[in-house]
Amino acid sequence: MIVVAGLAVGAEGPKLVRGSPGTFGLRLGHDRVTVFDTGVGGKDNSEKALYSAHGTDIDSSLVPEPSQGCLPREEAPGMQFFPWLVGLLVTAILGLAASLVVAARRRAAAAVAGERDLRRQVSELKRAGETLSRMAAIVESSDDAIIGKTLDGVITSWNPAAERIYGYSAAEVIGQSVSLLVPPDHPDELRHILEQIRRGERVDHVETIRMRKDGQPIHVSLTVSPIKDATGQITGASTIARDITERKRAEAALRESEDRYRDLVEHSEDLICTHDLEGRLLSVNPAMARLLGYWHQEDLVGRKLSDFLPSNVLSMFDTYLDTVQKERYSQGLMTVLTRDGQERILEYRNSLRTQGLAQPIVRSMAHDVTERARAERALATRIDRIHRLRAVTLELARERDLPALLSLVARRAAALLGAMSGAVYLWDETARLLVAQAYYSLGEWTRGKRLRLGEEIPGIVAERRQGMIVNDYPNSPYASSLFLERASFTAVIAEPMLHHDRLVGVLTVNNEGTWQQFTEEDDDLLGLFAAEAAIEIENARFYAALTDSKRRLEELYELGLAMQEQRSLKAGLDLILKGAQTVLGFDRMNILLATPDGTRLTAVASLGTEEPLEAIAVPVGPEGGGIAKAFLERRDIVWDGAAPVPEEWRLARPYSEIRAFRSRCYAIVPLIVRGTAIGVLGADNRFTRTPISTETLHLLKTFAAQAALTIDDARLYEEVTTHTRPTGSRPGPDPPR
User: Fold this and answer.
1) FRET partner for 727 with CA separation of 20 to 30 A, picked from 71, 345, 505, 564?
2) Residue 422 in contact with residue 411, Cβ under 8 Å?
3) 263-267, 464-468, 711-715: lowest mean pLDDT where?
4) For 584-635, what is each residue's pLDDT tens digit?
5) Domain boundaries 566-724, corresponding CATH code
C-alpha cells in the first residue's frame, strides 16, 4: 500500500485516509482525479475539494502513440491505468505544496503565540514585581524577625525586626553563620533544623532560646521553611522568629502562682473540689480522690457528686443545690460512699462563684469527720451497752447453779448483741477439748459438741486467746459442716473466756440474715461480757466444789463412823472401798497391806478390777516402783498423766503387767498407824482419765488415815478374839460399843 498525503493505494484500489486539519487527500476514480483537504470539515468530517480533473483533460502528448511502439488504446488494455499514474504524480506534487502551506501556517501561528506569551510574561513580571514590593514592605515592617539563609546556615537577609530582636545590624550578620545566635547549650539544634529543611520539611513554631548581641538569652518561637528556585530545587531557608520572652516570663509567673496554689491544694489534707450547678465535679484534689478510693483525680472529674451519696440521703442533694444557688452558701454534714462501699461523713462549707466565669461553679472545702462522728456514736452506744452489761452481770452474779448459769450466759450474750443464737463451750483440761455445755436458740444436737484447739471458730479463738468475727460464715474456711447442715448462720462472733489468763471456755454468738453483720464494737462488748462470764463461771464452779466438798466431808464423816462400828477386817475393807468410791468418785481402788516380814505388799481388797487379790502384789523395793516408794517413804505419789511416768516410779517386770496397776492418772497414799506404815491405798481414774484435784487428794488422805485406823482396830480385834476364843468355838457377833 502507498500513502501519499492521506491517500492509501493498495491492491483493492485507492482509499482516503482521514487526518487532522491541514492534511490533504486524493480520490481517484476511473476517469477523474480529485485533491481535497481532509481537515476542514470540522465535526461533520466534510471534505473540501481543492483540485479535480477529468481523465480526458490530461495532455495527450503525455500518452505515447502506437507508432512509438505502444499498442493502441483499444489494443493495449494496460493503457487504461495511465490516468492513475498521472494522478499519483499530481498528488505527490500537490502534497508537497500542501505541506509547505501547512508549515507556513504553523510558523505564522507560532509567531502569534510567541507574541501572546511575551505579553503574558511581561504582565506576570509586572505582577511579580508588585508582589515582591508588597512582600518586601511586609518583611520590612514585620514585628517578627525574618531571616534568609543558605542550606549551610549562612545569613543572606536580615530585616529590621531581626535587628531589634537580636541587636545585630544587617551589615554585621549577613554572610555570617546563623549559629552565632544559638546558645552553647543547644549545639545540635541548628544542624537538626537544617537537615529537616534539606529534606523539604517545614519546622513549625518551635520554641527555643537564642542569644542577643549583648549576650542576653531570649525566648523565641521559630518557623523555618525551605526556599526553592524556579526548578523546585531547595536553595535555602527562611526563618520567622517571634520574641516570646515576655510571654514566657508571664507564663512562668503564672505557673509559679499556679504551682503555689496547686501545691497548697494538692498537699492539703482538706477535701477540696469544685462542681457545676448540676453537681457535676469539675476539679478534685488528691485528698478528696483518696477519700473516695481513687488514685487518679481524672477518674472523678465529670462524674456527679450524687453518684457518691447513699440512697437514703440522695433525695437531699437537690435541696442542697437549690440552697447553694439561692443563698450562694451552704454548710453542714454530708455522708458519701467510697469506692469500696464505706460510708464517710464530711463536714463541708461550700460557696457559689460567678465573677469572671462564663458558667457559675460551686467551691467546696470539707473535712472528714467520720471518726469523730463514729466516736460520738460509739461512745453513746458503749454507754448504753455498759448499762445493759452491768444489769446482765448482776443477773449472772446471782446465779450459783452452774448449768443454769451457762444457759443464762448463752441467752444474755445473744440478747446483748441483738443476735439470733449463742453457745457456751467449756475447756476440758484433761481431755484438751472444748465441749459445748449450753446453748440458746439451737437444737439439742449442739450439746456435747467437742472441738480441738484450732478446730473451727471456737477452737481457733481458744488457741489464739483472742476474739474473732466472721461475717461471711457460709464461705468461711472455719465453717462447721454440722452448723451449715442444721443452721443458717451468716455471721459468727466468738470471744475467749479467760480467768487469770487461764482458759475457761469460749462464748459464741450467731446471726442469720446477710443484712446483719458484727462490728468491732460488738467484739469489744462481747469481750467485756465474756470476761464477766468467766468470773461468774469460776465462782459457780467454786461454789459447786464447796458444796460438793461439804457433801463429801459429811459423807466421809458418816463413813468414818460406820467404819468404827466394824470389827471384821473383810467387812471393814469392803465398806472402806465402796464408801471411798462413792464419796471420792474414783474409777478403781486397791488396798495393799504389808506382809508380816515387810517384804511384800499384797492386795487385801480391790474395787473395779477383775484380777484375783493374790495376783495383785509387789515387792517392797525398787522393783515395786511408786507403790513401794510410797510405803517406804510414807509419802503420797500422784501422777496426772500429762507426761510419761518417772522411771523411779515404774514397776519392774512382771509386776508392770498387773492390770490393776496400769493407769496414767493415779494416787498412792500410805496407810499409817502411830507413825508406822502398814500398807497403801491406791486410787486411779483409768477410764475417765480425770486428773486428781488437790481437794480430792486431801479427802483421799483423810480417808486413808481413817481407813488405816479401821484396819488396825479390826486386826487387833481379830487377834484378841482369836486368843480368847475356846478352841473349836465359832466367833460370836461383834459386841456393842
Assistant:
1) 564
2) yes
3) 263-267
4) 788 898 999 999 999 999 998 888 888 898 899 999 999 999 999 999 999 9
5) 3.30.450.40
Reported as a single tens digit per residue, the pLDDT across 512-551 is 876 688 998 899 889 999 999 999 999 998 888 778 777 7
Dist CA 257 CA 676 (whole Å): 105
Please give the single-letter amino acid code of residue 17.
Answer: V
pTM for the full predicted model: 0.42
Strand duo 421-428 + 217-228: pairing? unpaired
**Nearest one of 422, 404, 401 to 412, comparing CA atoms:** 422
CA-CA-CA-CA torsion for 391, 392, 393, 395, nearest 10 degrees? Answer: 90
Q: Which CATH class is domain 376-545?
A: alpha beta
Nearest alpha-carbon partner for 694 in 588, 536, 549: 549
- Separation of alpha carbons 100 and 5, rounded Å: 12
| CA–CA–CA angle 301, 303, 308 (5° rounding) | 115
The SS3 of residue 627 is helix
Class level of CATH domain 268-368: alpha beta
Q: Which cell is 122 given?
A: 511581561
Average pLDDT score over residue span 17-34 = 51
- Torsion angle defined by CA atoms of residues 98, 104, 105 and 107, in that order, rounded to the nearest 10 degrees: 150
Q: Which candidate, 706, 679, 375, places its Cα nearest to that of 553?
A: 706
- Cα angle 161, 165, 171 (rounded to 5 degrees) comes to 65
| Residue among 668, 662, 666 at smallest CA distance from 634 | 668
Q: Which residue type is seen at 309?
A: L
Tell me if 396 sits within 8 A of 533, measured CB to CB. yes
Span 562-571, pLDDT tens digits: 666 656 667 6
As given in the structure block, the three cell numbers for residue 538 are 469460776
For the chain, residues classed under CATH 3.30.450.40 are 376-545, 566-724
What's the mean pLDDT when you consider all of the chain?
Answer: 81
What is the gyration radius of the CA atoms in the chain, in angstroms? 64
Average pLDDT over residues 709-730: 68
Q: Which three cell numbers stand for residue 511?
A: 446471726
What is the pLDDT, as a whole number, of residue 87?
65
507: Cβ contacts below 8 Å, ≥ 6 apart: 409, 410, 413, 422, 423, 424, 425, 494, 495, 496, 497, 526, 529, 530, 533
d(CA 239, CA 193): 10
Q: Which one has a higher pLDDT value, 18 or 127?
A: 127
CA-to-CA distance for 360 and 276, rounded, in angstroms?
7
Residue ranges with strand state E in 581-703: 588-594, 600-607, 617-619, 637-639, 666-673, 676-684
By the 10 Å C-beta count (0-12 exposed, 13-18 middle, 19+ buried), 654 is classed as exposed
Alpha-carbon gap, residue 214 to 502, rounded angstroms: 90
The amino acid that residue 219 corresponds to is H
Round to whole Å and give the CA distance between 732 and 721. Answer: 9
pLDDT, residue 164, reads 94
Q: Mean pLDDT highest for which of 57-66, 161-170, 694-703?
A: 161-170
- Rounded to an integer, what distance in angstroms lies between the CA atom of residue 424 and that of residue 498? 13
CATH, domain range 142-249: 3.30.450.20
- The confidence score (pLDDT) of residue 654 equals 92
Closest alpha carbon to 562 in 541, 580, 546: 580
At 217 the three-state DSSP class reads strand
C-alpha cell at position 234: 531547595
Of 48, 50, 58, give the one whose Cα is nearest residue 87: 58
Bigger pLDDT: 413 vs 6: 413
CA–CA dist 333, 345 (Å, integer): 7
pLDDT at residue 60 above 50?
no
